[in-house]
């Protein structure tokens, strides 16, 4: 298989047979592409400045050279605009992929938490919990009655029945 067909068909990649690249692999590639395009942007910006300087240098003395420099500058500016649009699209895609990866991780962790809660509640019986809560309420009532009985003043002689 030729190198070009491997590139377009994804041959030889680490993700072959898994149904696509992992989010980390895709993010790494997107970042590499962003870096490459940023370097190309810088290169084009310096070329534009250079062509502008050449056009100024030739000015009215050599109109043909000045016009050629301005035409090259315009081509470089067009390429720069295309790269700006491509970078914007790549940044949007990278952010969307990062958000999707984050959402996937959050969902996975929520699943783990749900499993843990299920395991914790495995040994709990709702009827036993209801009985326990009734016992606690009864004991609180008894404690309150005892507290009330102790806190009332002993009125010796007031409550004698003749």
Describe the model.
Helix 2 runs antiparallel to helix 3 (about 65-120). The chain has a domain at about 25-115: ESAT-6-like (Helix Hairpins, Orthogonal Bundle). It is built from four helices and no strands. With about 160 residues, it is mostly helical. The longest helix is centred in the middle third of the chain and has 59 residues, at about 65-120. The N and C termini lie far apart (about 120 Å).
> What is the helix tally?
4
Give the distance, in angstroms, between the N- and C-terminal Cα atoms: 118 Å
Tell me the CATH architecture of the domain at 23-114.
Orthogonal Bundle
Low-confidence stretches: 3-8, 10-15
Report the major sheet. none
Strand content: under 5%
Order of helices and strands: HHHH
Summarize the SSE layout with pairings.
Layout lengths: L2 H7 L13 H36 L4 H59 L4 H26 L11
Short summary:
This is CHM4C protein. Helices cover 79% and strands 0% of the residues.
């Amino acid at each position: 298989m030729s190198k070009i067909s491997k590139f377009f068909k994804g041959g030889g990649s680490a993700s072959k047979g898994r149904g696509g690249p992992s989010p980390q692999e895709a993010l790494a590639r997107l970042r590499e592409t962003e870096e490459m395009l940023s370097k190309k942007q810088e290169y084009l910006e310096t070329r534009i400045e250079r062509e502008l300087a050449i056009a100024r240098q030739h000015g009215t003395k050599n109109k043909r050279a000045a016009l050629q420099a301005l035409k090259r500058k315009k081509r470089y500016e067009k390429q720069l605009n295309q790269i700006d649009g491509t970078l914007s699209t790549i940044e949007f895609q990278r952010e969307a992929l990062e958000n999707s990866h984050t959402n996937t991780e959050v969902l996975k962790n929520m699943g783990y938490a749900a499993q843990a809660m299920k395991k914790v509640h495995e040994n709990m019986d709702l009827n036993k919990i209801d009985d326990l809560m009734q016992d606690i309420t009864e004991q609180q009532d008894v404690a309150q009655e005892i507290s009330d009985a102790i806190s009332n003043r002993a009125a010796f002689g007031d409550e004698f029945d003749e």
